[in-house]
Amino acid sequence: MPVTIHDVAQRAQVSASTVSRALSASHLVRGTTRDRVLAAAKELGYQPNPAARSLITGRTGNIGIVVPDLNNPFYTGVLRGVQARARQSGYAVFFADGEEDPAAEEALVRAMARQVDGVVVCAPFASDAQLRSLAAVTSLTLLNRRLRDIPAALMDSAGGMRQVVDHLAALGHHRCAYLNGPNNAWSNRERRRGLRAAAARAQLSVVEFGPFEPKFEGGVQAADLALADGVTAIIAYNDLMALGVLSRLADRGVAVPQEMSVVGFDNLLYAAVCAPPLTTVAMPMEAGGRAAVDLLLSGIDGAGDGAGSHRELTTNLIVRATTAAARSHSVSDDPRPMAGRGSHG
């Protein structure tokens, strides 16, 4: 005979409704109870019937996530968190690439809405009006975009940037460059907000360049502009751009960190293994994905704190080998030929 939900309830010493919640909305069940139910289901080999559950609950058992660029490893980290939390709650995940196109994002969410119970939109390029319109079509949660009446998980980019500024100021830097990501990216606006406030407090002069594509090539392009301006430190919008900066500085014979300090954002795997290892702000990618799913499922279940509930996630500066005390003069002031200075490591 097939194992039923009542068999699992009897083994776990809970009600059948508790088993149902533990398997389909585990965030609503106390941890010890959930673990007992999951252990009982595993011991008995219980497999929920998705079609039957859908008929009973009116839900699909699926959620969606739209990211702006699947080629960016940052979003791979977010997806891992989304997948892990969804699996724990008994949901399957559909994902799609919005290609940094507001119209594509909107079309994808509307198409997904017919097949899922809700959608997480990660770092959306869509306008406020577009997002509010989508929130009327399906349960919606945002990641790294603040909108008053839509739930959101928000990584503290401004706080991370304040840590960067304090670090560079403590090393004696007085003039730095910031390489902007996309102008319409909420995270870029937050980084700039944190940068300007912290720089004013620390009396650090900042010159901004960009916007640039948030990719390796964007950093290569931006490095020459920063060098020509005589800064002693470069802060990149993300790690991919910072890696492009490091590559271009090596090509031009500028030693890092002896002649130029470089800082990124995200703390991708590449940041720890590049040469020299990159000082960067660790963004809680997987935790952000998990938090976004928690908010989405709470909204679906009607257990949230309201349509505009936001969850803040802390960021941390990871100091590695690309930052050091500022030189007494900038690279652009050095009379020696560029190729004759520093190491190429």
TrEMBL record:
- Specify whether Transcription is a keyword of the entry: yes
Per the database record, which ranges form the HTH lacI-type domain?
Answer: 3-57
Give the InterPro entries listed for this entry.
HTH_LacI, LacI/GalR-like_sensor, Lambda_DNA-bd_dom_sf, Peripla_BP_I
- Superkingdom of source: Bacteria
A GO molecular-function descriptor: transcription cis-regulatory region binding
Q: Does the keyword Transferase apply?
A: no
Q: Tell me the keywords, alphabetical order.
A: DNA-binding, Repressor, Transcription, Transcription regulation
CDD domains in the record? HTH_LacI, PBP1_LacI_sugar_binding-like
Q: Pfam families under this entry?
A: LacI, Peripla_BP_3
In Swiss-Prot or TrEMBL terms, this protein is called LacI family transcriptional regulator
Q: Which organism is it from?
A: Rugosimonospora africana
